[in-house]
Amino acid sequence: MHYTPSMIGRRSEQGRSVGHSTSAATVVTRLFLPALLLPALLLFLAGCQEGGPPTKTSPQNCLDCHAVALDPPHNLACTSCHRGEEPAESADTAHQGLIARPAHPDHLTASCGPCHRQEVAAVSASSHFTLPRTTNLTRAAFGAEEWLSSYRLTPVAENPESVLDLADDLLRRRCFHCHPASSGEAYAAVQRGTGCAACHLPFGDGRLLSHRFTAPADGRCLACHYGNYVGFDYYGRFEHDFNHEYRTPYLAPGSTPAAPYPPRPYGVEYRQLQPDIHQQAGMACIDCHGGDELMRGGSSPTCQGCHLPGEQPGPPPPRVDTGPSGARHLGVDGRERPIPPASHPAHRRNPESSCQACHAQWAVSDLGRHFLRQDSDDLDDWWALAVQGSREVEELISTNTNFLRAELPVVMSDGLSGEKRPGIWLQGFTSRRWEMVELGRNRQGLISPMRPILDLSLSWLDEEEVVRFDAVPAESAGANKGLRPYTPHTTGPAGLFAEERIAAFLRREEAARQLPPGEGGGP
How many C-alpha atoms does 120 have within 13 Å on its Cβ side? Predict the structure, then answer.
């Protein structure tokens, strides 16, 4: 509608003005009040932001987002080890070229080498970083003739054609999760750093607790040395049967029907036996196993070095003082402990015996360790055996035997490359015992505790449930049950029957010599 001047002021039928005339004050108010209020509003809003609205993001340093405390020797710029960009205006820019794990063996030389050149060179060749004995003894047990200088050279065997190929697949996908290039299985006490950080940075509940590099605490040793291996036994722990019926019937405090059992920080069940006498005295792993041995390939400690120091050539071991008042040990905890001398006459009567032949309180005897690679998806027979020390295996069995959950693909990660390949490795045992200490001869000819570490067999059930390999035994299993000498960390008093243990072994050894060759007798 077009209004004319004559229409202004005319009232409608309801008595209201149609375009009534407006006072000058009202017009001014309507026109200029918004203009007056807008600057005030903008000033008010600006006051809500300290320093005013930024025109661009201010560059920030790493510690502005990542609050970490560093030990004095490593109080460097974050980019010195982790690379990336600092300062940066965004996370994407800051993380360009980032190395999340600079202590990993792949980055060790570039990250740690500039400051720790000799240490990096030594530790890179150490047995902790190369695992030569474990790798090569297992491969040789299944026919390998070549000696590998490092476990990382173990071939990939996607479709094994020989039992050695199958053993290589077992090593890469089931065994190589306890090494410095791996962060470990996804269990609270097992996950750790890589490379130098595996030992020197503290982890807890699967996460990094601090950026302060320190000497290794026992928990960091046990992140790899758990299960039925030397280290776990030092704390009196013996891994037991996997079947869920062997789990404790006692409920954990705060348990629920969905999680009724105590936690398994190492991913395995274990019995608590008598700890080693040195552990009971408060000694840490590195009180005996120091950096020279672990990082530089130095000599391993001996019992005689502490308990018969005057009869050993060379200087006493580190942390041992042989003063006029007797030998004493200065622990990493600062405590000084007297060292009892080996004065019992039995030490003279049995020169052929190693110390642990008498002093081991118990030993690991896992007979008949069977590994099965299964590519098919029928895992129902394994529902009660899900606890196997492997997070991938446990999750797969628990999920695929529960009809309420969507099935997972039957694949397992390569411990070196992280690549997932078809099939999972399952394991079981003929028997698992700890009571008897099996004896044999070590490389020096001394009577020593033994364990059936190479009593192995391998099988493979493919995706079509065709048996490709059926319980192929290790070549070294044979008559000696795959026994290898080892040093149980279960030291204690020798006891009344220690000498009889030695005498019984010598009688069996002599009886075996009388047998015809081929029946356990001579050559």
Answer: 16
